[in-house]
Design a protein that fits this description.
The structure holds two protein chains of two kinds. Chain A contains no helices and eleven strands. By secondary structure, chain A is mainly β. In chain A, the strands form two sheets. In chain A, strands 2, 4, 5, 6, 9, 10 and 11 form a seven-stranded mixed β-sheet that branches. In chain A, strands 1-3-8-7 form a four-stranded antiparallel β-sheet, with no helix packed on it. Chain B is mainly β. Chain B has strands spanning 4-6, 11-14, 19-25, 32-38, 45-50, 55-57, 60-65, 70-75, 84-91, 95-97, 101-106. In chain B, a hairpin with a 4-residue loop joins strand 7 (60-65) and strand 8. The N and C termini of chain B lie far apart (37 Å). The chains are: A mainly beta, B mainly beta. Chains A and B meet through strand 5 of A and strand 4, strand 5, strand 9 and strand 10 of B.
Chain lengths: 115, 107
């Protein structure tokens, strides 16, 4: 079975541009979360979606937005890119929307560089 | 104060050694705790859950101290393949990751 897939794997943008990152969860998983991981830090929670509804939002500016589609895939959009947005963006899926199991299945990430 | 704090290390140990490190958390209402492993430039993967009574998984032992608000991970008989960054995860309404503790096992 395919794991969590993300695209693109690497991309370079310039300040002020916008970016769309895509994620396909494991088949049967209805919850998708997005994390930002800056070099040397742990993943920081951005959003969680479950059944196409936003279930949680981290401490990120409104430039960050996301959505989940009927097939449970998800997009993360970042507008007006800043240098500090350079990071590895991880998508994670799990079967349900609850957090008690704690097991997230991560994709390999999209590595964004903002110049 | 950060929600989750870890000693970044690095812990540089010889094969066969025992290494242990802690993770502290700030929210006393946190419900669940986990250790994830992240290899260089790879995605994090669940290593083990942390139960209130402590638990083992092979050479790995995890413990929780709710009174002092920390969890720990101990690795016995270290292998070269244990070299990685170990991320502490604390759950309230969301999963919060620590910055990670880097362990390097040398031959």
């Amino acid at each position: 079975d395919a794991g969590v897939t993300q695209s693109p794997t690497h991309l370079i943008k310039t300040r002020g541009q916008h970016v769309t990152l895509r994620c396909s969860p494991i088949s049967g998983h209805k919850s998708v979360s997005w994390y930002q991981q800056v070099l040397g830090q742990g993943p920081q929670f951005i959003f969680q979606y479950y059944e196409k509804e936003e279930r949680g939002r981290g401490n990120f500016p409104d430039r960050f937005s996301a959505r989940q589609f009927p097939n449970y895939s998800s997009e993360l959009n970042v507008n007006a890119l800043l240098l500090g947005d350079s990071a590895l963006y991880l998508c994670a899926s799990r079967r349900t929307g609850g957090t008690n199991t704690g097991e997230l299945f991560f994709g390999e990430g999209s590595r964004l560089t903002v110049l | 104060r950060k929600e989750v704090e870890q000693d970044p290390g690095p812990f540089n140990v010889p094969e066969g050694a025992t290494v242990a490190f802690n993770c502290t958390y700030s929210n006393s209402a946190s419900q669940s705790f986990f250790w994830y492993r992240q290899d260089c430039r790879k995605e994090p993967k669940l290593l083990m859950s942390v139960y209130s009574s402590g638990n083992e998984d092979g050479r790995f032992t995890a413990q929780l101290n709710r009174a002092s608000q920390y969890i720990s991970l101990l690795i016995r008989d270290s292998k070269l393949s244990d070299s990685a960054t170990y991320l502490c995860v604390v759950v309230d309404y969301k999963l919060s990751f620590g910055a990670g503790t880097t362990v390097t096992v040398r031959a």
